[in-house]
């Protein structure tokens, strides 16, 4: 059983066990937790990510009048489980992870994402790409030369690091990834995949353009050292979501922390760290294309 199959199985199990609770939530009073619990899918160095989010968490505290605590993520699935189980109130999810999670709780609500600046790898706007990358100085000049090579994926729940490689790239090969590459490993995050390529630990990796941009600007993997062999269609950026069971006044205050008039000025350092200009609103319809891909995925 592959890691992706196990993840889908876990999310399906959570969904089956959680649907009764979701239905009951409609009949119950809304929730106003004394402490707002925040988490995020692990894209890179989790400690650095938590530190980066501090200005946003402080702004949420100021606007809601409630303390915010961070639930440290161990995987994409752990964040989904926390949201569906009620132990996480706000989180950032990957597009595919959000769609999977929404199938377990129809009240789960995406409300914001970032608008990125243009860079060496990243397009301007609320989109990104999955990129298949190798070292520029390697013997891998095209996709054909990668047959039998060692490939890194990120996490089974990752859109650009697992779903898109399987659903958009593998059909170009005419076979599953496992049949084309000599070895496939999961790094756990896009940053780790990028570093595995940089250090020669793997031959190639699928990495999100936003994280490649961060690796470029930090100097961890400069653009001149990267050769891009494939790029996906545009993907909507990661949504910030909250549990729909939260009371409307609280949800309104949370939205305002991201999207209010003073949000951009208050969160400028955070946005710069994300190579972004601002937060923008999103809703479920923005992820319809990802849902279509998942509906076609083998169960």
Structure overview:
By secondary structure, the protein is α/β, with parallel strands linked by helices. The protein has two domains: 176 residues, Periplasmic binding protein-like II (D-Maltodextrin-Binding Protein, domain 2), CATH 3.40.190.10; 104 residues, D-Maltodextrin-Binding Protein, domain 2, CATH 3.40.190.10. Helix content is 43%, strand content 19%. It has 13 helices and 13 strands. The strands form three sheets. It has a six-stranded mixed sheet with strand order 2-1-3-12-4-13, with helices on both faces. Strands 8-7-9-6-10 form a five-stranded mixed sheet. A two-stranded antiparallel sheet has the order 5-11. The protein is globular, with a radius of gyration of 19 Å. The chain starts with a helix and ends with a helix. The N terminus is likely disordered.
